[in-house]
Design brief:
By secondary structure, this protein is mainly beta. It contains one helix and seven strands. The longest helix has 4 residues.
Length: 106
């Protein structure tokens, strides 16, 4: 309806620890969310079990319970050169959506 906020919002993230289920995203993507759903390129969806934010740095961290997650390969930023390709690939970049209908503090 006009004048009402959409109950969902979305953003992207990066799986930084596949074994522990940690997904790095932006704090503004998950702050004030009642529920965050992480959707992977392979079609799997997971509800975040825990969420942490650092609003000053705009960093958000999610924890999902999942097996066989694709994990981003983090490299040495000192070795980067102009023109280097993005090292993460698409398989390790989940899509995060939030719902405001059940608000909780993150």
């Amino acid at each position: 309806r006009p004048g009402q906020e959409d109950p969902t919002a979305s953003g992207s993230g990066v799986i930084i620890d596949a074994k522990k289920g940690y997904v790095l995203t932006a704090a503004h993507v998950i702050e004030q969310a009642g529920e965050v759903v992480v959707s992977l390129e392979d079609g799997r969806k997971f509800t975040a079990k825990e969420m942490w934010t650092d609003k000053e740095g705009d960093i958000g961290l999610l924890k999902i319970a999942a097996d066989n997650l694709p994990e981003a390969r983090l490299g040495d930023s000192d070795a980067l050169e102009v023109g280097d390709r993005h090292p993460l690939g698409t398989r390790a970049r989940p899509y995060c959506s939030r719902r405001h209908d059940r608000r909780r503090s993150a």
